[in-house]
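Budget justification, computational time. The allocation requested in the original proposal was used primarily to generate structure tokens for proteins on the priority list. As evidence of use, we reproduce two of the resulting records. The first is shown immediately below.
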Amino acid sequence: MRKVLITPLFLGALILPTAALDLTLPGTPSPITTMQTLYDKIGTAIWYIFAVAALAMFVVAGISFLTAQGDPGKLETAKKAFIWGVVGIVAAVLAFSIVNIVKGLLT
């Protein structure tokens, strides 16, 4: 039951700050004028969500390490969570870099 309540709250905490950053007042023109601006805003929003998720992954792995109390199975699980967190960050940075390199080569 806890997972059912925690998941929407966690997703809301990820989405609300991103939505608040892009908030415009009524009557003001939308700042999105080109497809490139739209692409940049979506990329920035995804990058913010990824950063929060990566931080949460490392916090969960750290808490798992602290609560393992020497149990080899729990330590192995915590170690795997940490390693997959690092792999996720490396993959995201590589993906972001490859897109920017290709964009730079094509323009």
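The second record produced under the same allocation is shown here.
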Amino acid sequence: MSRCPWPGNDRLLISYHDVEWGVPLHDDRALFEFLVLDGFQAGLSWKSVLHKRDAFRRAFGGFDPEFVVRFSETDLEQLLQNPEIIRNRAKVRAAVTNARAFLEVRDEFGSFNRFIWRFTRGAPLINRWGALSQVPARSEESDRMARELVQRGFKFVGSVICYAFMQATGMVNDHLVTCPRWAEVQDAGSSPGCPE
């Protein structure tokens, strides 16, 4: 058995793959973190985002949406001067917009977790890929998720970004069947409080 090939020899990517990627995630703050980080990934590699993750955590108050939603114009300008993060004006603004939309969803559904896991009926979708070339960039579920998120005011949430979010948060298991993590992440189970 060998791990998925995409981490290559990068130690941070290997650790991320071996510990986090594909594990079903149900914590609202952690879900918000991936929503923001996957938005920053648009047009870039996950490696470039992951290597700046700690700086993003510092800059975005530990990805507390209630902290991010209060960013002023001055705060945004300071973020755009921060060389430790990805300084893209549209993406920085989108993080604030998404914090607002995230809080609205949380208020409506009781948690963002309850809302977002509806797209997979509360349980991870288990794929059985034998090669990296088989793993899709989007799915029917990510298409639906993207449409609803856009309708609710979220930014940088196209279907490809939503699918990356689903992979990261364990809504879909896209580890190759030859990877030990394919079986390991399935032990984490489904989301409490979500429709089956």
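A brief technical remark on that second record: The longest strand covers residues 125-126.
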